[in-house]
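ok trying again, last paste got cut off:
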Amino acid sequence: YTLKKFGIDENTKDVSGGEILKEANGYPSGVLMENARKLINITEEVSIADIESLIVKALPNLAKMGITSIQSDDYSVDTPYGMVYDAYVNLVRDNRLTVRVNQQCRASGYEGYADIVNQPQPEDSVRPFYKLGPIKVMADGSLGARTAYMTEDYHDEPGTKGIPIYSQEVMDSIVSLAHNNGRQLAVHAIGDGAMEMVLSSIKKAEESNPKANMRHGIVHCQITDNNMLKRFKDDGIIALIQPIFIDADWQIAAERVGLLKASTSYAFKTLLDMGVHTPFGTDCPVEEFNPFKNIYCA
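nice, full thing came through this time. structure:
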């Protein structure tokens, strides 16, 4: 019913950076991968007051864990980022924001990033509690869904390499846009194919326009090889890792990518020993925001 309501049938083409899974008879299975999710929009319209209410509702839970500062990916393709911005600024002015927030800024496509990359920081009185942080980019999907983009076929599904959200050309343009405007990058990349794309884009941007201490980072850094790990160190890339994945994802790693590639993946201690900066994240809301579980895994 839902597929029909949104005009999705056996003749609907895949979108760039996404896939409509089909049954053997060619009809959609109901599973929409990555950017194909955009074919269905069931998000309710919300007001700035609604967003403020949701944020305030979450604050006591953060306080119970002793969390006083977060990096949050609240800008998204579903809610206009201006509304999110206004909600946080209002909360700061009303003394209702009980954590400091460094806002990761995510958009969709080059045009979306061009729209937000030059957005000014909030006023001086707001910035100690709410400021605009890294440009957040999604390079691929997840290991569990086999949408993380690999350089080789999945070990347990030959013919599948996952889904790159952007082409190399578009990734280059987004990374250069952020870099040239002095904005730090935090790029989600799980598969080694996506990692290769992002490392290449950052290298090109830096060589084209050298900038000191940009502190660009890659989020997750799960499927890697030894050469890739070395490039983190050589190019000064931050590895924004989630230690809880060692518990949550490690069991399927060898099944997905094979024993050889798994042996150089989730190599967080190796990165640390190499001198790569490896700040932790909880990956909430995929995982819990409880930081102690990540510390335990680490």
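cool. Residues 20 and 32 are 5 Å apart (CA to CA). DSSP finds twelve helices and eight strands in the chain.
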